[in-house]
Amino acid sequence: MNDVAALSTMPLYTSLDRIERGLAALGIGPGDPIRPEQLFPLDQWHYHGADAVAAAARALGLGPSSHVLDVGAGVGGPARYLAHAVGCHVTALELQPALHGIGVDLTRRCGLADRVTHRCGDALSYPLPPASFDAVVSFLAILHIPDRSRLFSRLAGVLRPGGRCYVEDLCQRAPFSPRDLRDLRAVVCGVTVTGPGDYAADLTAAGFVDVVATDLTDDWAPYAAERLAAWRQNHGAYACVHGEGAYAAQERFYSVIARLYDSGSLGGIRLEAAA
Ligand SMILES: C[S@@+](CC[C@H](N)C(=O)[O-])C[C@H]1O[C@@H](n2cnc3c(N)ncnc32)[C@H](O)[C@@H]1O
Predict the structure, then answer these.
(1) Is 250 within the bounds of a domain?
(2) How many whole angstroms separate alpha carbon 29 and alpha carbon 103?
(3) Which residue's alpha carbon is nearest to atom 22 within ligand 1?
(4) 145 CB under 6 A from ligand 1?
(5) Residue 118 falls inside a structural domain
(6) Does some domain include residue 47?
Protein backbone atom coordinates (compact mmCIF):
# COMPACT_ATOMS: atom_id res chain seq x y z
CA MET A 1 0.00 0.00 0.00
CA ASN A 2 1.14 3.57 -0.61
CA ASP A 3 2.24 5.88 2.16
CA VAL A 4 -0.14 8.81 1.52
CA ALA A 5 1.46 10.97 4.21
CA ALA A 6 4.93 10.62 2.69
CA LEU A 7 3.63 11.24 -0.82
CA SER A 8 1.76 14.38 0.18
CA THR A 9 5.01 16.04 1.32
CA MET A 10 6.63 15.62 -2.11
CA PRO A 11 7.27 19.10 -3.60
CA LEU A 12 5.01 18.44 -6.58
CA TYR A 13 2.09 17.77 -4.21
CA THR A 14 2.50 20.76 -1.89
CA SER A 15 1.46 24.40 -2.41
CA LEU A 16 -1.68 23.09 -4.08
CA ASP A 17 -3.23 26.54 -4.02
CA ARG A 18 -0.98 27.26 -7.01
CA ILE A 19 -3.81 26.12 -9.26
CA GLU A 20 -6.30 28.66 -7.89
CA ARG A 21 -3.56 31.31 -7.91
CA GLY A 22 -2.77 30.47 -11.52
CA LEU A 23 -6.46 30.73 -12.40
CA ALA A 24 -6.73 34.01 -10.50
CA ALA A 25 -3.91 35.36 -12.66
CA LEU A 26 -6.23 34.67 -15.65
CA GLY A 27 -9.05 36.54 -13.91
CA ILE A 28 -10.87 33.32 -12.89
CA GLY A 29 -12.10 33.35 -9.31
CA PRO A 30 -12.74 30.39 -6.96
CA GLY A 31 -15.84 28.54 -8.10
CA ASP A 32 -15.95 30.31 -11.48
CA PRO A 33 -16.48 28.25 -14.63
CA ILE A 34 -13.28 27.28 -16.47
CA ARG A 35 -12.56 26.30 -20.05
CA PRO A 36 -10.58 23.03 -19.87
CA GLU A 37 -7.77 24.41 -22.04
CA GLN A 38 -7.24 27.25 -19.53
CA LEU A 39 -6.18 24.54 -17.08
CA PHE A 40 -3.69 22.70 -19.29
CA PRO A 41 -0.65 24.70 -18.11
CA LEU A 42 -1.69 23.95 -14.51
CA ASP A 43 -3.20 20.48 -14.34
CA GLN A 44 -1.01 18.24 -16.54
CA TRP A 45 1.69 16.87 -14.22
CA HIS A 46 3.74 14.89 -16.72
CA TYR A 47 6.02 15.45 -19.71
CA HIS A 48 4.63 17.42 -22.68
CA GLY A 49 1.30 18.15 -20.98
CA ALA A 50 -1.87 17.82 -23.06
CA ASP A 51 0.15 16.85 -26.18
CA ALA A 52 1.21 13.61 -24.45
CA VAL A 53 -2.41 12.78 -23.62
CA ALA A 54 -3.49 13.55 -27.19
CA ALA A 55 -0.80 11.15 -28.43
CA ALA A 56 -2.09 8.47 -26.05
CA ALA A 57 -5.65 8.95 -27.31
CA ARG A 58 -4.48 8.53 -30.90
CA ALA A 59 -2.38 5.46 -30.12
CA LEU A 60 -5.27 3.85 -28.24
CA GLY A 61 -7.82 4.78 -30.91
CA LEU A 62 -10.07 6.39 -28.30
CA GLY A 63 -13.40 7.97 -29.20
CA PRO A 64 -16.56 9.25 -27.52
CA SER A 65 -17.74 5.72 -26.69
CA SER A 66 -14.48 4.75 -24.96
CA HIS A 67 -14.38 4.07 -21.23
CA VAL A 68 -10.95 4.83 -19.82
CA LEU A 69 -9.39 4.30 -16.40
CA ASP A 70 -6.71 6.86 -15.46
CA VAL A 71 -4.46 5.48 -12.71
CA GLY A 72 -2.84 8.12 -10.50
CA ALA A 73 -5.02 10.87 -11.94
CA GLY A 74 -3.55 13.75 -9.92
CA VAL A 75 -5.90 16.74 -10.12
CA GLY A 76 -7.53 15.16 -13.17
CA GLY A 77 -5.73 16.91 -16.03
CA PRO A 78 -5.35 13.92 -18.37
CA ALA A 79 -8.90 12.72 -17.59
CA ARG A 80 -10.41 16.11 -18.39
CA TYR A 81 -8.37 16.36 -21.59
CA LEU A 82 -9.68 12.97 -22.78
CA ALA A 83 -13.26 13.89 -21.88
CA HIS A 84 -13.08 17.35 -23.43
CA ALA A 85 -11.01 16.76 -26.57
CA VAL A 86 -12.03 13.18 -27.39
CA GLY A 87 -15.36 12.81 -25.57
CA CYS A 88 -14.30 9.72 -23.60
CA HIS A 89 -15.85 8.60 -20.32
CA VAL A 90 -13.02 8.56 -17.82
CA THR A 91 -12.68 7.19 -14.30
CA ALA A 92 -9.95 9.23 -12.61
CA LEU A 93 -8.50 7.24 -9.71
CA GLU A 94 -6.32 9.23 -7.32
CA LEU A 95 -4.80 8.24 -3.98
CA GLN A 96 -4.43 11.62 -2.29
CA PRO A 97 -7.71 13.06 -0.98
CA ALA A 98 -6.52 16.66 -1.41
CA LEU A 99 -5.73 16.15 -5.10
CA HIS A 100 -8.92 14.17 -5.63
CA GLY A 101 -10.96 17.01 -4.08
CA ILE A 102 -9.33 19.63 -6.31
CA GLY A 103 -9.97 17.39 -9.31
CA VAL A 104 -13.68 17.05 -8.50
CA ASP A 105 -14.03 20.82 -8.21
CA LEU A 106 -12.12 21.58 -11.43
CA THR A 107 -14.07 18.97 -13.40
CA ARG A 108 -17.38 20.40 -12.21
CA ARG A 109 -16.29 23.92 -13.14
CA CYS A 110 -15.25 22.69 -16.60
CA GLY A 111 -18.71 21.19 -17.11
CA LEU A 112 -17.23 17.71 -17.54
CA ALA A 113 -18.74 15.92 -14.53
CA ASP A 114 -20.95 13.83 -16.82
CA ARG A 115 -17.86 12.34 -18.49
CA VAL A 116 -15.22 12.30 -15.73
CA THR A 117 -15.89 10.27 -12.59
CA HIS A 118 -13.38 10.94 -9.83
CA ARG A 119 -12.58 8.14 -7.39
CA CYS A 120 -10.33 8.50 -4.37
CA GLY A 121 -8.37 5.40 -3.42
CA ASP A 122 -5.31 3.23 -3.82
CA ALA A 123 -4.98 1.60 -7.24
CA LEU A 124 -3.68 -1.49 -5.43
CA SER A 125 -6.94 -2.03 -3.58
CA TYR A 126 -9.73 0.27 -4.79
CA PRO A 127 -12.65 -1.90 -5.99
CA LEU A 128 -13.04 -1.61 -9.75
CA PRO A 129 -15.57 -3.46 -11.90
CA PRO A 130 -13.99 -6.33 -13.88
CA ALA A 131 -13.74 -6.20 -17.68
CA SER A 132 -15.30 -2.74 -17.80
CA PHE A 133 -12.74 -0.43 -19.46
CA ASP A 134 -11.56 -0.13 -23.06
CA ALA A 135 -8.26 1.41 -21.99
CA VAL A 136 -6.11 2.15 -18.98
CA VAL A 137 -3.79 5.15 -19.03
CA SER A 138 -1.26 6.25 -16.45
CA PHE A 139 1.11 9.21 -16.60
CA LEU A 140 4.04 9.45 -14.18
CA ALA A 141 2.24 7.66 -11.36
CA ILE A 142 3.35 4.03 -11.27
CA LEU A 143 6.80 5.00 -9.96
CA HIS A 144 5.01 5.79 -6.67
CA ILE A 145 3.22 2.43 -6.41
CA PRO A 146 5.09 -0.21 -4.38
CA ASP A 147 3.65 -3.42 -5.86
CA ARG A 148 3.72 -3.07 -9.65
CA SER A 149 3.01 -6.75 -10.31
CA ARG A 150 -0.17 -6.60 -8.28
CA LEU A 151 -1.16 -3.34 -9.97
CA PHE A 152 -0.74 -4.78 -13.47
CA SER A 153 -2.72 -7.91 -12.57
CA ARG A 154 -5.55 -5.68 -11.39
CA LEU A 155 -5.36 -3.54 -14.55
CA ALA A 156 -5.45 -6.63 -16.76
CA GLY A 157 -8.61 -7.66 -14.91
CA VAL A 158 -10.48 -4.38 -15.40
CA LEU A 159 -9.86 -4.24 -19.16
CA ARG A 160 -12.30 -5.72 -21.64
CA PRO A 161 -10.80 -8.40 -23.89
CA GLY A 162 -8.64 -6.55 -26.41
CA GLY A 163 -8.51 -3.48 -24.19
CA ARG A 164 -5.23 -1.58 -24.11
CA CYS A 165 -2.88 -0.14 -21.55
CA TYR A 166 -0.75 3.00 -22.10
CA VAL A 167 1.78 4.04 -19.47
CA GLU A 168 4.38 6.79 -19.32
CA ASP A 169 6.76 6.62 -16.38
CA LEU A 170 10.29 6.96 -15.08
CA CYS A 171 12.70 4.06 -15.38
CA GLN A 172 16.25 3.14 -14.43
CA ARG A 173 18.99 3.09 -17.09
CA ALA A 174 22.03 2.55 -14.86
CA PRO A 175 22.57 1.93 -11.13
CA PHE A 176 21.67 4.93 -8.97
CA SER A 177 24.50 6.35 -6.83
CA PRO A 178 23.69 6.35 -3.08
CA ARG A 179 22.95 10.11 -3.25
CA ASP A 180 20.74 9.74 -6.32
CA LEU A 181 18.86 6.83 -4.76
CA ARG A 182 18.29 8.86 -1.60
CA ASP A 183 16.87 11.77 -3.63
CA LEU A 184 14.84 9.45 -5.84
CA ARG A 185 13.15 8.10 -2.72
CA ALA A 186 12.91 11.31 -0.66
CA VAL A 187 12.28 14.00 -3.27
CA VAL A 188 10.64 12.09 -6.13
CA CYS A 189 8.95 9.38 -4.02
CA GLY A 190 10.12 6.89 -6.63
CA VAL A 191 9.62 3.51 -4.97
CA THR A 192 9.33 1.42 -8.15
CA VAL A 193 11.81 2.67 -10.72
CA THR A 194 13.33 -0.27 -12.59
CA GLY A 195 14.95 -1.03 -15.91
CA PRO A 196 12.72 -1.18 -19.02
CA GLY A 197 13.07 -4.98 -19.22
CA ASP A 198 11.69 -5.56 -15.72
CA TYR A 199 8.90 -3.09 -16.39
CA ALA A 200 7.82 -4.89 -19.58
CA ALA A 201 8.22 -8.29 -17.89
CA ASP A 202 5.76 -7.26 -15.16
CA LEU A 203 3.17 -6.47 -17.83
CA THR A 204 3.73 -9.81 -19.53
CA ALA A 205 3.54 -11.69 -16.22
CA ALA A 206 0.19 -10.00 -15.54
CA GLY A 207 -1.18 -11.43 -18.79
CA PHE A 208 -0.67 -8.48 -21.16
CA VAL A 209 0.43 -9.24 -24.72
CA ASP A 210 2.04 -7.26 -27.54
CA VAL A 211 4.06 -5.28 -25.00
CA VAL A 212 5.98 -2.44 -26.63
CA ALA A 213 8.45 -0.34 -24.63
CA THR A 214 9.72 2.96 -26.02
CA ASP A 215 12.71 4.73 -24.51
CA LEU A 216 11.78 8.41 -24.04
CA THR A 217 14.95 9.48 -22.24
CA ASP A 218 16.46 11.44 -25.15
CA ASP A 219 13.29 13.50 -25.23
CA TRP A 220 12.61 13.82 -21.49
CA ALA A 221 16.14 14.60 -20.28
CA PRO A 222 16.44 17.87 -22.26
CA TYR A 223 12.82 18.67 -21.39
CA ALA A 224 13.70 18.37 -17.69
CA ALA A 225 16.82 20.54 -18.13
CA GLU A 226 14.84 23.22 -19.98
CA ARG A 227 12.07 23.06 -17.38
CA LEU A 228 14.59 23.74 -14.63
CA ALA A 229 16.22 26.62 -16.53
CA ALA A 230 12.81 28.18 -17.26
CA TRP A 231 11.80 27.74 -13.62
CA ARG A 232 14.89 29.57 -12.39
CA GLN A 233 14.43 32.31 -14.96
CA ASN A 234 10.87 32.86 -13.77
CA HIS A 235 11.87 32.89 -10.09
CA GLY A 236 10.85 36.47 -9.30
CA ALA A 237 7.50 36.35 -11.06
CA TYR A 238 6.53 32.95 -9.59
CA ALA A 239 7.61 33.77 -6.05
CA CYS A 240 5.70 37.05 -6.24
CA VAL A 241 2.42 35.19 -6.91
CA HIS A 242 3.00 31.92 -5.00
CA GLY A 243 5.66 32.74 -2.39
CA GLU A 244 9.33 31.81 -1.99
CA GLY A 245 8.50 28.50 -0.25
CA ALA A 246 6.42 27.27 -3.17
CA TYR A 247 9.13 28.35 -5.61
CA ALA A 248 11.89 26.61 -3.65
CA ALA A 249 9.99 23.32 -3.23
CA GLN A 250 9.42 22.99 -6.94
CA GLU A 251 12.98 24.11 -7.71
CA ARG A 252 14.30 21.29 -5.56
CA PHE A 253 12.13 18.75 -7.35
CA TYR A 254 13.05 19.98 -10.84
CA SER A 255 16.76 20.17 -10.01
CA VAL A 256 16.89 16.64 -8.57
CA ILE A 257 15.14 15.24 -11.64
CA ALA A 258 17.50 17.10 -13.99
CA ARG A 259 20.53 15.81 -12.05
CA LEU A 260 19.28 12.22 -12.14
CA TYR A 261 18.96 12.38 -15.94
CA ASP A 262 22.40 14.01 -16.15
CA SER A 263 23.97 11.21 -14.17
CA GLY A 264 22.67 8.73 -16.74
CA SER A 265 20.74 6.67 -14.20
CA LEU A 266 17.22 8.00 -14.77
CA GLY A 267 15.22 7.45 -17.92
CA GLY A 268 11.75 7.84 -19.33
CA ILE A 269 9.66 5.06 -20.80
CA ARG A 270 6.37 4.46 -22.57
CA LEU A 271 4.74 1.04 -22.39
CA GLU A 272 1.89 -0.05 -24.59
CA ALA A 273 0.22 -3.43 -24.22
CA ALA A 274 -3.02 -5.29 -24.95
CA ALA A 275 -5.10 -7.28 -22.47
C1 LIG B 1 3.08 12.94 -10.99
S2 LIG B 1 1.39 12.75 -10.52
C3 LIG B 1 0.68 12.65 -12.12
C4 LIG B 1 -0.78 12.97 -12.11
C5 LIG B 1 -1.47 12.80 -13.46
N6 LIG B 1 -1.30 11.46 -13.96
C7 LIG B 1 -0.96 13.79 -14.46
O8 LIG B 1 -0.18 13.38 -15.33
O9 LIG B 1 -1.31 14.97 -14.39
C10 LIG B 1 1.21 11.06 -9.92
C11 LIG B 1 -0.07 10.82 -9.14
O12 LIG B 1 -0.21 9.43 -8.81
C13 LIG B 1 -0.89 9.35 -7.57
N14 LIG B 1 -0.73 8.02 -6.98
C15 LIG B 1 0.39 7.51 -6.42
N16 LIG B 1 0.17 6.27 -5.95
C17 LIG B 1 -1.12 5.97 -6.22
C18 LIG B 1 -1.94 4.84 -5.98
N19 LIG B 1 -1.46 3.76 -5.36
N20 LIG B 1 -3.23 4.86 -6.39
C21 LIG B 1 -3.72 5.96 -7.03
N22 LIG B 1 -2.99 7.07 -7.28
C23 LIG B 1 -1.70 7.08 -6.88
C24 LIG B 1 -0.23 10.46 -6.77
O25 LIG B 1 -0.96 10.79 -5.62
C26 LIG B 1 -0.14 11.56 -7.82
O27 LIG B 1 -1.26 12.38 -7.80
Answers:
(1) no
(2) 16
(3) 72
(4) yes
(5) yes
(6) yes
